[in-house]
Amino acid sequence: MLIAGEFVGGKGSGELTISDPARDSTIIAVQSASTDQLGQAVTAASAAQREWENVSPTDRAATLHRLADAIETCADQFTAVITTQLGSPVGLSERLHVRLAVADIRAVAEALVSMKFEQQIGASMVLERAAGVVFAITPWNYPLHQVVAKVAPAIAAGCSVILKPSEEALGAAALFARCVQESGLPAGVLNVVVGGGREIANELVGHPGIDVVSFTGSTEVGSAIARQAAGTITRVHLELGGKSPSLIAPSGDLTTGVKVTLANCFLNSGQSCNALTRLLVPRENLSQVEQQILGLMPRHQPVDPWSNGARMGSVVSVARQASIWSDIQAAKDRGDTILAGGTGLPDGIERGAFVRPTVFFDTDPNSPIAQEEVFGPVLTVLAYDDLNHALELANATRYGLGGSVWASTNHEAADIAREIRSGQVDLNGGAFNPAAPFGGFKASGYGRELGRYGIASFIEPQSLQN
């Protein structure tokens, strides 16, 4: 843990076990933070924040660039840790998990120097002030990217941060803390505490020294955190679950749309909150889609994450594996049709938290497998009758995080996307943009991360009247 600029061991009564899911083996056990240590982190963050806010935006941006440099220098270490603790293929760990995090930080730094923190509005001087001390709770599925998506905008805004990384992927956060020290960030601006999510949240969400709570995780836990924070009127940002549609319009490139959607759904073993897990296709094309999916499935089979050219590794734990299998079996028991995959270990694999990528075909749109987040490599294919029906299906879940539209032109795709209640929609396979806002509608949360929108999430305006 990192508290007030010093690395310390936990003194709490709880013990966290760090595992290698691909080998179903324990790596190490660490002690959780004590209540006193959590209080020390709040004290350190409060003291450091007041000075850090007075550092110029240009100098804060320079610190962020040094942080990105430090992560790039340690890229091989981050790659190894993420591959080991997440089960992510080694190539994916380097390309997606590490490089994306670096791009996130640099995009925030570039946005910071372009922002105005003072402006005259009539007789008022309006200041953009740091919101204060941020309690950031991050998930395990992107153990570096999700950390920087919260920490970088917060410290860019002049806030200090108490980071509680997921207990299932602590290694990347520990390395990140080392890089933070190398960047020259003042002691106390970032503090890292470890422990069970519920125990630490109970201590810090309603703590009087916390000004903002930023949480990424399930919708159910996010709702509980919002209720707890309401007791102290603490500001909350929530980035929650998703069940994102990939809508291939009648004019769209069906072959490319199916191929990219399948790859996106299975990326990171399906453990992405914005994964395209619902494929919406014209009913008359179902047969063609079926044959294409069957032809593509062999390239997405899970293998040892350290293998050359691996596309899929394991999921994060045997507990996650069991949860995914339970959802697949429940859907099968309800009569939903499995086109490919299913429960049980993939062929050739005898142990570890591996899951066969699974496709449910021509699914009832109201089925739980088509409505609720599985958080694993599970795709549902839904047929629509016309474009209005497709949009109805696209908006027919409680979530609204990601999405994709495939049409003959980007202009047509954009017109369709405007009818989808989702925070981010890709047009004809558009690439992820780390400078653009990321966040959801409906039960996918509120608040935005990344770039200038992420910085704005940690700012409070103050008006000085003449």
Q: Any overview of this molecule?
A:
Strands 14-15-16-13-12-18-19 form a seven-stranded mixed beta sheet, sandwiched between helices. Helix content is about 40%, strand content about 20%. Helix 2 runs antiparallel to helix 4 (about 90-115), helix 3 (about 75-85) crosses helix 4 (about 90-115) and helix 4 (about 90-115) packs parallel to helix 5. It contains 15 helices and 22 strands. It has helices at about 35-50, 55-75, 75-85, 90-115, 145-155, 170-185, 195-205, 220-230, 255-265, 285-295, 320-335, 370, 385-395, 410-415, 450-455, and strands at about 1-5, 5, 15-20, 25-30, 120, 125-130, 135, 160-165, 190, 210-215, 235-240, 245-250, 275-280, 340, 360, 380-385, 400, 405, 425, 440, 445, 460-465. The mean pLDDT is about 95. It has about 475 residues and is an alpha/beta fold. The protein folds into two domains: about 1-240 and about 445-465, Aldehyde Dehydrogenase, Chain A, domain 1 (3-Layer(aba) Sandwich); about 245-435, Aldehyde Dehydrogenase, Chain A, domain 2, CATH 3.40.309. The N and C termini lie far apart (about 45 Å). The radius of gyration is 22 Å and the shape is globular. Helix 6 (about 170-185) links the parallel strand 8 (about 160-165) and strand 9 (about 190). It is an enzyme of class 1 (oxidoreductase). It catalyses: an aldehyde + NAD(+) + H2O = a carboxylate + NADH + 2 H(+). It comes from Arthrobacter alpinus. This is aldehyde dehydrogenase (NAD(+)). InterPro entries: Ald_DH/histidinol_DH, Ald_DH_C, Ald_DH_CS_CYS, Ald_DH_CS_GLU, Ald_DH_N, Aldehyde_DH_dom.
